[in-house]
Write a structure and sequence with these properties.
Blueprint lengths: L22 H13 L4 H14 L2 H7 L2
């Protein structure tokens, strides 16, 4: 009998990251994620990946 369930990932996400935010920040994240059809996790993954792909000089301009 074949195995049931989800197929195994090539890059399983085994680590958990916890971030503390204000009530306002959480509300803004929820509103943005909802209006763009994303989860907060997807939103944060996208944001982190965008920052990692941005040259350091440009990132420094974002956070003076």
């Amino acid at each position: 009998m074949a195995k049931m369930g989800r197929p195994k990932s090539d890059a399983p996400k085994l680590n958990t990251l916890s971030v503390r935010v204000t009530d306002r920040e959480l509300q803004e994240l929820r509103e943005y994620a909802d209006s763009h059809g994303m989860t907060i996790t997807q939103l944060l993954h996208t944001g982190v990946n965008l920052l990692l792909q941005t040259p350091d000089a440009e990132v420094q301009n974002l956070f003076p």
